[in-house]
Design brief:
Distance between the termini of chain A: 54 Å
Number of strands of chain A: 0
Number of strands of chain B: 2
Radius of gyration of chain A: 18 Å
Number of helices of chain A: 5
Shape of chain B: elongated
Largest sheet of chain B: 2 strands, antiparallel
CATH class of chain B: Mainly Alpha
Largest sheet of chain A: none
Oligomer: heterodimer
Largest interface: A-B, 49 and 52 residues
Number of helices of chain B: 6
CATH topology of chain B: Four Helix Bundle (Hemerythrin (Met), subunit A)
CATH superfamily of chain B: Cytochrome c oxidase, subunit III, four-helix bundle
Radius of gyration of chain B: 22 Å
CATH architecture of chain B: Up-down Bundle
Order of helices and strands of chain A: HHHHH
């Protein structure tokens, strides 16, 4: 029973210090690219600007949730508890934007 | 006597583990359920900001200059370099937080001696980074008010201050939580048996970080 509990709590080992360092580096690099993109007027005016920024933001979001919040390694119940409301929040946002014709 | 001792031991173990029928600690389930509810809170605040975006009748505006009917010129209100710096500080605080958790989880194990295994250092670093972020936000809010943007000025002001104010309050709560853990660590020391205490605080802190990742892009960078 206690083994089951230990297994349920830590399905896999957490990332190591080196992996945490790499995650931090990636987050830093993506943030630098985001800010850099903001200062290129031609890119800001292009149609690719908003999707590119949203994509970079989504990548950063996913990296933090998967590695720093250990969702990649933890029990699937935690994943459901997080992704369920996140999808509702996303659907609410999209519904509001359509409702107010944005 | 043996039965009584075993019963007492089982009771003590039950008191300290808080396991549910899922085999998971109820405090961890609770924090994930709370984070789920927070997703919906911030989802609604961000939706409100986006619905009102660009609908302000009077300035100051986030990315465009504005001249008032009296001839007063307002420059774009958002200061991207300052906010980029505060974003960097908050991202680094997440690294410090995972290092604090790893230090508590692996206390006494090989490879976690010295700086890397100092939970006090990493908890203090995380709390300080959170406090610096709040300092940046206080500076930003103050300068906005001096430049003529308050929560009552226009739709942008109302939705901006509400969204970032709610986030700042969450950061402040996180800093208090981290300081409490630091106090416990200094008082009696945090070890592997206390991992769950730091883990739930870390989950909250990282959530505050991911909310800022979204706010930084949607509010500050997308024009």
């Amino acid at each position: 029973m206690s083994n089951d509990r230990a297994h349920a709590d830590h399905v896999h080992e957490h990332p190591t210090w080196k992996q945490y360092k790499w995650v931090a580096l990636w987050l830093f690099v993506i943030t630098v690219v985001e800010v850099w993109a903001y200062y290129i007027p031609a890119f800001v005016a292009s149609k690719a600007f908003v999707p590119a920024l949203l994509l970079m933001s989504a990548v950063k979001f996913t990296i933090v949730v998967m590695f720093y919040m250990h969702l990649k390694y933890d029990h699937s119940l935690f994943r459901k508890l997080f992704t369920g409301p996140l999808l509702i929040a996303g659907a609410t946002l999209v519904a509001f934007l359509f409702l107010f014709k944005r | 006597m043996t039965t009584a001792t075993a019963a007492a031991g089982a009771h003590e173990a039950h008191e300290h583990t808080h396991y549910t029928t899922t085999g998971l600690d109820n405090r961890k389930i609770a924090i994930w359920a709370f984070i789920g509810s927070e997703c919906m809170l911030f989802g609604s605040l961000i939706s409100t900001y986006l619905v009102y975006k660009g609908r302000s009748v009077v300035g100051p505006f986030p990315h465009e200059a504005w001249t008032s009917p009296t001839g007063q010129v307002f420059k774009p209100i958002l200061d991207i370099p300052v906010t980029s710096a505060s974003t960097f500080v908050l991202l680094m605080s997440s690294l410090f937080m995972v290092l604090a958790l790893a230090a508590v989880e692996n206390k006494g194990k090989p490879g976690y001696e010295g700086t890397l295994g100092s939970s006090k250092l990493w908890l203090l670093a995380t709390a300080l980074a959170g406090a610096v972020f709040l300092g940046f936000q206080a500076y930003e809010f103050t300068s906005f008010v001096h430049e003529g943007l308050t929560i009552k000025t226009n739709l942008f002001g109302s939705s901006f201050f509400t969204l970032t104010g709610f986030h700042g309050t969450h950061v402040a709560v996180g800093v208090l939580w981290l300081m409490t853990l630091l106090f416990i660590d200094m008082k009696r020391g945090l070890g592997p048996k206390d991992t769950i205490l730091v883990d739930i605080c870390a989950l909250y802190w990282h959530f505050v970080d991911v909310v800022w990742i979204v706010i930084f892009t949607l509010v500050y960078l997308i024009q």
